[in-house]
Amino acid sequence: MSILVNEKTKTIVQGITGKNAALHTKFMIEYGTRIVAGVTPGKGGMEIEKVMVYDTVKECMDKYPDIAATSIWVPPRFACDAILEAVDAGIKTIVVITERIPIHDMLYARAWAKEKGITVIGGNTPGVISPGKALIGMLPTITFKPGRIGTVARSGAVTYYLANSLNLAGFGESTSVGLGGDPILGANFEDILREFENDPDTDAVVMAGEIGGVYEELAAPYIGKMKKPVIAYITGKAAPQGKRLGHAGAIVEGNMGTAKSKIEALRANGAIIAETFSEIPELVRKALTGN
Amino acid sequence: MRLYEYEAKKLFKRHGVSVPDGVIVDKTTIDELNKAVFPVVVKAQVFLGGRGKAGLVRTANNKDEAIDHINKIIGIKHGPFFVQKVLVERKVNIKKEYYLAATIDRLEHKPLIIACPEGGVDIEEIAKKNKKSILKYYFNPGHKIHEFTARKIAADIGIHGQAMDQAAKMIQHAYRIFIEFDCKLVEINPLALTDNAQLLAVDAKIDIDEDAMFRNPELKEMGIFARHEIGELTEREKKAKILGIPYVDLEGGDIGVFPGGAGFGIAAIDLIQHYNGKPANFMDSGGAPTQEKLRAMLGLLIDNPDVKAIFGARFGGISRCDDWAKAVVQYVIDNEPQKPMIMRMAGNMEEEGRKIFEQAIKDYPELFKDIKIYSVNTPIEKVIEETIRIARSIPDKNTQGDL
């Protein structure tokens, strides 16, 4: 098993005619992801990578009622509407690749999704991969190997480095989830940790957080209740206050969102804290073998 | 992105929130004072609080006094910021102060209005003293504020009678500004009731969402452009912005950081500090950067006189190591940088990338003598330690004698 996405998940691509989306549609299909349709308003009838393009999400649903996931690649100003369209169509998992979505837009879209019990991943997520099964998003597939460690991180590059260092040590991933670098996210660490805790094919979880917001702190009490070990790596100790570091969400505002407060909250609830990338596989091994 | 008080007040005035009459003055526009009505309050325009204690808010009874204050205040360093402008406002006689703000609750994922019958001091101070006096009103995202809600808030903080209608309108207007201008915070503290029964926003703080500026052209018309969340951009940061590169200068650093994506960039500056090195910058290449962008990124670092050595890392995922190698090699050949570069390259097309570097080292041994490329076999931490060691071995400019 794995979480969120597997080889059976039928999925669509919203904004498929964009350059980036088209390229990654190709990679996703090559990896085995079941992409059944794409959407770009006004471009219905086109084909991208042999995938039929529709004008609306509803038309895709009419044709393939069992679509379970979508990924959104549209420019930021259209992202809210694209999420709402997917929510309205009843797609259960929405992966939002678009970055720097206006905060008020994301609050609005998130509230809609929540009301309908729909999972939104992102914005600014690199995607979700269940190695050997399927990928939704733009994670570089060569970096991931099938295995029994779940990873969840805010950033794409950190997700690759995590997988890479785990793989070099002989581990692999059940699923790797990018939460996204935007300040307002759909799913948070706790949501994904719950999925991994309940997944019989995940033995341990590595989470990588960064400065900004309070999603790491929020997850801490749940980690205290988990049976599976959680190894946490938090970046941004060297970050200056009041300046965004690349990700829209990566900013220390006043006393909120510092690396220190996150590490303290996680440690107090039993998470194993890693100081560097290289020590993560060893900490995983120790947590699993008990020595 | 924090606005200056005078910018926030300008926005208030244009959208129905009353503020004291005032003029904005810097050293070249002292004549603006002729429009002021005395007595006035001279307020330094800086992003940090604590202006009162720092002597950056002063009363003046006439023009000469005001000029005297202005000359003393402008140029003062408050926190990391230098005072460049002052707001000269008509002094109002305050009968009662309140607190009013609209912001986003990051736990509830909802906008809310915070109101308090006490104002004029930090909301954190009020919370310490009397948490119960702080009232919160949650809104559904995207919903507007109703008139009756605004009246209720006014009544809850004890505004009745003549001022009630004024207060309710002000609360509505402030919330509208919060929504329409995509704000993260609109704070009026104090909201003052004057002795002639007028309600005025005596201080104003607005944080806007930079990512929504595209739909708020009025800000640009008002001369408000991108800056840090708190603070102006440095010259190098402005240059990077034009090039489309997220970049932040870090004070006192000597290692230029040339990473891949943002998340790894944040990790890289941490790791450099973890091993007692001094990162000079944060930078983000974005996904699959072009060769041109990569060369521009390197240029920013090489041109920084404080940078002694460069730490680079490329994790080839979607992007290819050989493309990255080509960009670095071309930069070195074109610009002959006299600074060591210590880099790690791993992932997609790593072998091809390595060949490009090997060829370049063979063809231009002199140019590439201070450039080291590591592979997936060397942990990133080792590469960082090596960079720090090399940066340390290079003396500071001012200790190189007087030649």
From TrEMBL, chain A:
Keyword Ligase on entry: yes
Domain CoA-binding as annotated: residue spans: 4-101
GO molecular function, one term: succinate-CoA ligase (ADP-forming) activity
Keywords, sorted A to Z: Ligase, Nucleotide-binding, Tricarboxylic acid cycle
Enzyme class: ligase
SUPFAM superfamilies, sorted: NAD(P)-binding Rossmann-fold domains, Succinyl-CoA synthetase domains
GO BP field: tricarboxylic acid cycle
An annotated GO cellular component: succinate-CoA ligase complex (ADP-forming)
Residue positions of the active site: 247 (tele-phosphohistidine intermediate)
UniProt EC number: 6.2.1.5
Pathway the protein acts in: Carbohydrate metabolism; tricarboxylic acid cycle; succinate from succinyl-CoA (ligase route): step 1/1
Reaction catalysed by this enzyme: succinate + ATP + CoA = succinyl-CoA + ADP + phosphate
InterPro entries: Cit_synth/succinyl-CoA_lig_AS, CoA-bd, CoA_lig_alpha, NAD(P)-bd_dom_sf, SUCC_ACL_C, Succinyl-CoA_synth-like
Highest taxon in the source lineage: Bacteria
Subunit structure: Heterotetramer of two alpha and two beta subunits.
Family designation: Belongs to the succinate/malate CoA ligase alpha subunit family.
Name assigned to this protein: Succinate--CoA ligase [ADP-forming] subunit alpha
Highest classification ranks of the organism: Bacteria, Bacteria division WOR-3
Automatic annotation (TrEMBL), chain B:
Domain of life: Bacteria
ATP-grasp domain segment(s): 9-235
GO molecular function, one term: ATP binding
A Gene Ontology term for the protein's cellular component: succinate-CoA ligase complex
Cofactor names: Mg(2+)
Keyword field: ATP-binding, Ligase, Magnesium, Metal-binding, Nucleotide-binding
SUPFAM superfamilies hit by this protein: Glutathione synthetase ATP-binding domain-like (SSF56059), Succinyl-CoA synthetase domains (SSF52210)
One of the GO BP terms on file: succinyl-CoA metabolic process
Protein name: ATP-grasp domain-containing protein
Species name: candidate division WOR-3 bacterium RBG_13_43_14
Organism phylogeny: Bacteria, Bacteria division WOR-3
